[in-house]
Amino acid sequence: MKVFISHNKADRVTARMLAIALVEQGVDVWFDEWEIQPGDSITGGIEEGISSADVFVLVWSKSASKSNWVGTELRAILRRRVDDATLKIVPVIVDASPLPALVADYRGFDLKEGMSLESIAAQLTGCPSDIEIARRLQDRLMELTASYASPGDPLPYLICPKCGSGKLERHEAWDEKRGDRYLVITCKDCNWSDSTEI
Q1: The predicted structure's pLDDT at residue 129
Q2: Rounded CA gap, 4 and 11, in Å?
Q3: In this structure, what is the dihedral angle of CA atoms 22, 62, 91, 42, given to the nearest 10 degrees?
């Protein structure tokens, strides 16, 4: 499952917290502040995110109803939905602003009713078991590792698998008795380490 979260900047905190709740469920989330880096094309990034999404989450509010960007994203996904009936459109209503007519038919969630973002994330993912969540998170970590690691890196760690720290240090070591050279990676926070012969 890949989720695209459409929102206005006024609702950024709500959108970000929902994105985090979905990631904690092991879902691949397209969220603009995570995906579009300085120098990237905004329209190109949004187009790629929309075209690869299985689920389009519309964070709807008075601000969103007045947003040209949200309107453009919504029109793009509705056009895609005409050709792909499996695509899900899920409104998340923040305030009393009425949904657009073409979206009002889709079942969504109303934050005014006291529903938590974690509960929304769990319902979107079908409330997977802890093992399923761990598997999804592991798969996502492996995807991120592959995309950020240098080609051929024998120790492609992004974070420490023991404590989650990003303070990893690499160095080479020499085993004089055996005559072997090793690449060693060590966590500066918990002293976890791994090595491989080079």
Answers
A1: 63
A2: 15
A3: -60
Q: Work out the burial of residue 46: count CB atoms within 10 Å of its CB; fewer than 13 is exposed, 13-18 middle, 19 or more buried.
A: buried
Sheet of 55-60: strands edge to edge? 28-30, 2-6, 55-60, 88-93, 109-110
Write the pLDDT tens digit of every residue in 23-39. 988 889 999 888 888 88
Residue type, 179: G
CB atoms within 10 A of CB 154: 13
Q: Is the dihedral of CA 108, 8, 49, 131 positive or negative?
A: negative
Q: What is the pLDDT of residue 128?
A: 66
| Cα 180 to Cα 195: distance, rounded to the nearest angstrom | 12
Whole-number Cα distances in Å, 68 to 19, 40, 72, 176: 22, 20, 6, 66
Set out the domains of the chain in order of their start, with CATH numbers: 2-137 (3.40.50.10140), 150-197 (no CATH)
pTM of the model: 0.65
Query: For residue 13, which phi and psi values (nearest 5 degrees)?
Result: -65, -45
